[in-house]
TrEMBL record:
Alphabetic keyword roster: Hydrolase
Organism this protein belongs to: Peribacillus frigoritolerans
Keyword Hydrolase: yes
GO MF term set: hydrolase activity
Protein name: Diadenosine tetraphosphate hydrolase
Amino acid sequence: MREITLSNGKTVEVECLSCALTSGEVEPDGGVIVETEYFHAHQDVAYPIKGLVILASKRHIKCFDELNDLEKVDYINLLS
């Protein structure tokens, strides 16, 4: 577990911040921008820089090479 301080000053203890965000365990201050079956887009919860959007896989992966075909199509559709 790691302890992370969010931009609102709240400290959370999580195994993986991305997993905690996509599961709803941690709620981003700006809310969810867009959510699909495979991805979750939100503002960075530690450093809320205007215009910066985090697009996180809902499945815990280490590299985009691990995405399956459905996830790849969803990712491309989100970016287009």
